[in-house]
Predict the structure.
Amino acid sequence: MPAGTAPTTTSKSDNVAVIIEGLDKHFGNIQALQRLNASIHYGRLTGLVGPDGAGKTTLMRILTGLLEPNAGRVTLAGYDVVRDNDAIHVASGYMPQRFGLYEDLSVMENMHLYARLRGMDAERNTELFAELLDFTRLGPFTERLAGKLSGGMKQKLGLACALMARPKVLLLDEPGVGVDPVSRQDLWRMVQALTDEGMAVVWSTAYLDEAERCESVLLLNQGQLLFDGPPQTLTAQLEGRSFRLENVGTERRAVLTKALDLDSVSDGVIQGAGVRVVLRAGAQTEQIQTLADQIQVPMKPVPARFEDAFIDLLGGGPGGTSALAERLAPVELGSDIAVSCRHLTKRFGSFTATDNVSFEVQKGEIFGLLGPNGAGKSTTFKMLCGLLKPTEGEAQVVGYDLRRATGAAKSKLGYMAQKFSLYGLLSVRQNLEFSAGVYELEGQTRRERIEEMIDTFDLGNWLSTAPDALPLGLKQRLALACSLMHHPPVLFLDEPTSGVDPITRREFWTHINGLARKGVTIMVTTHFMDEAEYCDRVAMLSRARLIALDTPDALKQGAATTDQPDPTMEDAFIHLVETAEQNDEVNT
């Protein structure tokens, strides 16, 4: 038992790891948590789910003893999180949402540091270190600086450090953000092993396919607990309300917009060549069937998903019409090819980040660039945006060669970086003003564009706020607004929805679909495989090379087997990466 005060005796069962009773937390006038009551059990993976600003991170920090509640109490492993604060830090392991390690220290140096912070003698725990390195598969990388690790490897190192004192309760705040499906599969494997050994694990997430895999889910919204139980229980409430319009093809974006504007439809997404819709509670199928008949495609019922239930519980999605796209004139280009690259290669010393990549992107196409962490996606993006000079090969945007006409090409494209790239010392309005100036907007046009972005992205109440103080969803809205200020015909989005909640993602894709319908060409990287379904075509990178280029449906079909005749996009991703790695091993 950890040193410190004796544990409290309020435990309702020996299997209960955390008890939350009447929990309230406010920050000034903002009510972050309201009268929460819940319990978390040993040997179980509990998902903590909710939209941006729901209170997930606040609850996590209270559970770790980093924040004190204004009312109510929490016991963790039998200890009161306020009264027994020192003991809480030993009984729990915490992996924060933002990378909490030291990037200029190596993997092993970070582990030694966390051992000392835990009051452990690192020299006497070599066996534990070896066990954690083996568990996280970081053994070959002990000398690598943490800042040089891929996103997935950083999360594994964070997990190793959180497990340093063998905690009874492990708290993971959005560990899957920015992590590719292969690395996320590794995280799941490790967490499953921990719960099998009896540890209580809380996994906060914005990925609802992750929540669906949890044994129990706490669903928060605006600080209130809306649901507590197995995800299948909530999903079952949508039985008979999920349908897919099949083989819609090139008209799927227009069809999705029409479907989402129907009174009877709560939510909808694109799935490859089809459109998936969810009806509101009590709604009949007449409207959606009429739409299917009008476009002469079959409609069939499909099983409900936890994401469907989540969106429905929060009142439905944001609708299908983009106010931004409605204001945009159709894009006119001199060519049907908006973006192209030939034999694009980038080396940093002896390291090849992008290796001989070639493709073309059509005007008005949504083109997805997928791959594991470190595959070369962001490097390829930066070369196509003129931010990096290729070592070999060439790239063109709207007919401009990026080697010779970088300035002219940049004026024709918008770029939203993977890491939030706005100016923290400027307010929201000042960031918008700065972006307008960068794109040389002046006079009435400048004023109109800024007001257009404020109105479209609902930024009016935040104009004097610094970006760092904004919730993540609003930060991403601001970043997208700045990248669209000059109405570019080509838009580059590098993981634009990483970490944001599903409703905000729906809002982003409403704008993206609307822009594509106006002829804007969009290149996007993402680790959300359901977002890849929105793309007309997907290019898959692995180890810096292009390993596949096709439609989402064709890539899924290529992963089909007798045992798995209807694979998901995530299945296709893992299949392509593992096949490419096996071929590399054979060739070497």
